[in-house]
């Protein structure tokens, strides 16, 4: 693990048996509350795209809003919230996506991204990939050019990264944790 990854991993709280027995929940609220770690995480997410023309950063509810907003600010890009069904007030486009135990729906405003705009999807963690894959498909449905998906944490044992890469999307992560 690199020095940066080690520093960021140390700022993330691990909670055993949450939300159910056998799961280790990776809580980034401790990273967000640590000014140095939060700044470092945002800087590392931004760095590969500095100087490139990125039109929008899309963030998934809710931690993706925090990280994505900071990344959008640093890249002078717009921010697009991707929310659970029924939370946005204007005309939306919606997609159903698979969860570990069922299906849910997410949506975004239909005019949030123009066809051909370059978009980076940002969230705190990639696990099984269901939500991120759904978000990429939703963005592509309205013509976005999704150039990358960026996460602070990767849980590679759960296979989400591979699902995104199978869609032809670059995936960047800062910290890997084995197990779940």
UniProtKB/TrEMBL annotation:
Keywords: Cytoplasm, Glycosyltransferase, Purine salvage, Transferase. GO terms for molecular function: adenine phosphoribosyltransferase activity. Its EC number is 2.4.2.7. Its main location: cytoplasm. Residues 37-157 form the Phosphoribosyltransferase domain. It is found in: Cytoplasm. It catalyses: AMP + diphosphate = 5-phospho-alpha-D-ribose 1-diphosphate + adenine. It holds the Pfam family Pribosyltran. Pathway: Purine metabolism; AMP biosynthesis via salvage pathway; AMP from adenine: step 1/1. Catalyzes a salvage reaction resulting in the formation of AMP, that is energically less costly than de novo synthesis. Belongs to the purine/pyrimidine phosphoribosyltransferase family. Homodimer. This is Adenine phosphoribosyltransferase. It comes from Rhizobium paknamense. The gene is apt.
